[in-house]
TrEMBL record, chains A, B:
One annotated Gene Ontology cellular component of this protein: nucleus
A Pfam family it matches: PrmA
PANTHER family, alphabetized: PROTEIN ARGININE N-METHYLTRANSFERASE, PROTEIN ARGININE N-METHYLTRANSFERASE 6
Keywords (A to Z) from UniProt: Chromatin regulator, DNA damage, DNA repair, Methylation, Methyltransferase, Nucleus, Repressor, S-adenosyl-L-methionine, Transcription, Transcription regulation, Transferase
Protein location: Nucleus
GO biological process: DNA repair; methylation; negative regulation of DNA-templated transcription
Protein name: Protein arginine N-methyltransferase 6
The EC number(s) this enzyme carries: 2.1.1.319
Domain Protein arginine N-methyltransferase: 160-332
GO molecular function annotation: histone H3R2 methyltransferase activity; protein-arginine omega-N asymmetric methyltransferase activity
Classification via InterPro entries: Arg_MeTrfase, PRMT_dom, SAM-dependent_MTases_sf
Chief location of this protein within or outside the cell: nucleus
Amino acid sequence: MSHVVKKRKLDKSRQDSLYFDSYSDVTIHEEMIADHVRTNTYRMAILRNSECIRGKVVLDVGAGTGVLSIFCAQAGARKVYAVEACSIAEQAEKIVKQNNMEEKIQVIRGTVETVDLPEKVDVIVSEWMGYALLHESMLNSVLYARDKWLQQPGGVILPNKAELYITPICDPVVEDRLHFWYTVKDQYGVDMSCMSDFATKCIMNSDITVNSVTVEDVLSHPARFAELDLNTVTVEELRSVKGDFTCECFGSAAVNAFCVYFTVTFPCPDKPALVLSTSPFKPETHWKQAVLYLDVPVDVVQDTLVTGEVSMYPSEASARHICIHVDYTIGEQKKQSKTFSIPDWSSEAQI
Amino acid sequence: MSHVVKKRKLDKSRQDSLYFDSYSDVTIHEEMIADHVRTNTYRMAILRNSECIRGKVVLDVGAGTGVLSIFCAQAGARKVYAVEACSIAEQAEKIVKQNNMEEKIQVIRGTVETVDLPEKVDVIVSEWMGYALLHESMLNSVLYARDKWLQQPGGVILPNKAELYITPICDPVVEDRLHFWYTVKDQYGVDMSCMSDFATKCIMNSDITVNSVTVEDVLSHPARFAELDLNTVTVEELRSVKGDFTCECFGSAAVNAFCVYFTVTFPCPDKPALVLSTSPFKPETHWKQAVLYLDVPVDVVQDTLVTGEVSMYPSEASARHICIHVDYTIGEQKKQSKTFSIPDWSSEAQI
């Protein structure tokens, strides 16, 4: 059934408790562990960094079930502090014991902003990325941990770089859904074609939709519009992550949405860096892609320019939720603007 | 991502406004119209009842897009009152005009409890069924309309009978999800088998899950535990719909859930009645089936008896939401009890 969602504000502490509650169910951890691209890339990156991990102290920010902490212990860490605010920390404890790593891995229940570590750390590892990189992400906590607990100079952050991309797409599901209302007459003898305007308003709304975008849907080479260096970026800078983009369309199509996705990069001493990509051109991850629907489809042809600026910032309703504002010009069209946010079911559902 | 949901109470009027809001999006109407079993069965039932519809007055309770009202007009109704409380009524208006039926069909925006009709009606048609028949169903409104507006004697209600069924099943998805944690060691070299207890608690919870149950999952002939005669049933009686069941298992399996589903029946003068079935043995509908997970799987063999009593009643938090309480005995096991409800995301999401 469909769900029309109204906005509601929550005070900060409430937001946090809801946020942490939502990670106490098994499903999300199952989904994250089962995401081979995610888990294998982290595993490979940690093992390839064993030179800078062996004998060193590691902080795992938002450790969840503790799988990254165990990878770090396997890579030879002397000590791993697995900091986790949710009750899933109790499961991490059990898993650490089951893998006989109580000596090396200390699970600490709490937020990284409040816990007290006995020492500075040489390495910070964290899987902090949310939908569209920054939705409900833990990046602020990682930066806090970096500034408070990471040895400087020489401290290592895994991953140490994040990049954001945008590309115009044609979502065929929307095409089909809008066309559906023209097919009702043949099916049932009732003309419902007048519903297509209403359907367009409902479907091509200002929600950030998390969807699997396939290669066939992509209408141009993706354009990188932002890069974050995790060694230097500040919480202040995260309050507005923006950049320009220019895309040249491959050929004739109807643009009905933008696709936004991210990559994160792991440094690998003496080896090429490892990239965890959520690109529609790469194997699917549980992050899929963020889809931003235009109000109406716009026809493009080969080499039609799609240019503009993307700006991502925390929503007023909840600092953990992002808004994405896109100013864009398609071919000869005049400049358009649309602001998108993740529908509140994602937060409502955590209540 | 997964969503752990806490309960929240809403006052009645708030509940109603949320309830009606949720039907103002296109998706649910698309889903209902595209449900061929639903829409074709109603269409056939209405056309086969043209003898009692031709020249008569019809009330469509919760008309939505008005498709059933148009079927009734096509069947020869003199007048159809299409009563709809949501803003989708505006779309129904347009659709009625587009099909040139303004003369015959009057769309009335409001709840059937509050609208005033110019005359009594000969026929009430309504698609009022919710998940597990009664979750967020409009049946109370249909009964209100019956008692206030339906000609007696001789008034016709389409459908005029509803039946509820239950059967033990083995949901293979749950089996796989619980097994997943034993596979992590082979995949990533980390033993996470101790997560399976936590996973069992999270997955086999007391939510009513709306799922497609396949024939292969069903472990016995379904047992009918309740029947509602819409000509006589009262709102009072709906406050507790209950009945016994006895199921004989087909063969060796692990019962991990009960499946509850419903049928509704349309009388057809001089013809066999038409049945709209949501049985797992019949083509899928958008209602799918209601799945109720046991706390732990129970092994059964051929002819193992699964007996008990099912009781369905409105939840305290919201009269529109149902609870399903099941007392059951599997083979030699001692009697067990579990109470299920639809997770609040379904209502939260309507906020």
